């Protein structure tokens, strides 16, 4: 009888990989984008099992609440969804399959051959430690991250707006 | 059933990475390619947290994952703004039809 934590892990892994497979293989870009929701939620659950509670909340807030909505907006603004056949075409699946298989072989070999000094740690909340790390050791990267976000926000607005023409101005 | 260990998380992350790579390589829709990139970034973030929990200790892995999330969010915003502009100019976001720079 598998333990409860093993069952939870298996469920979350199945949710993550099942949705990711849907993202990769669905013929409809809307379905792909919506399936990404399952992947993000599964990853958030896996973060909880790794005692990264703050990350799980951030994952749900930023990815599900922000990135996914943004992606859905872009899909609906750009795709002619009615033509479902052409909304998400694929090409070169054989080349991609060979490359993915090769990469997975290398990854699997490295992961199984390397003697990781792994030890099981008890699950405990880590948000306080994370906050201390951000305001101490990682203060400069933290502030740089906020500058990057500000720059990206301004850049996205500048890129996405239509050109404004004043009356009488030439093209 | 044995205890869930590092190798299980690494397997999930590797499979996620493989699916993301497959998505990036086969999709022609620019938004579809972006979905694949998100999968790859999530796989990398999951690896960071798993290694931190099982091997390194401390919170450095979670710090890196927070930065991955920050960069992924800004990358998605910029990329989707570019996709919108490309759609306005070309009426298509299929990566194989955007060849105006060719020749």
Summary?
The complex is a heterodimer of chains A (171) and B (103). Chain A is mainly α.
Strand content of chain A: under 5%
Largest sheet of chain A: none
In the CATH hierarchy, what is the class of chain B? Mainly Alpha
Quaternary:
heterodimer
Biggest beta sheet summary of chain B: none
Estimate percent helicity of chain B. over 70%
C-alpha geometry of chain A: extended
Radius of gyration of chain A, CA atoms, in whole angstroms: 22 Å
CATH class of the domain at 4-112 in chain A: Mainly Alpha
Order of helices and strands of chain B: HHH
Low-confidence stretches of chain B: none
CA(first)-CA(last) distance of chain B: 59 Å
Q: What does the average pLDDT of chain A come to?
A: 85
CATH fold naming of the domain at 4-112 in chain A: Four Helix Bundle (Hemerythrin (Met), subunit A)
Largest interface by residue count?
Answer: A-B, 85 and 72 residues
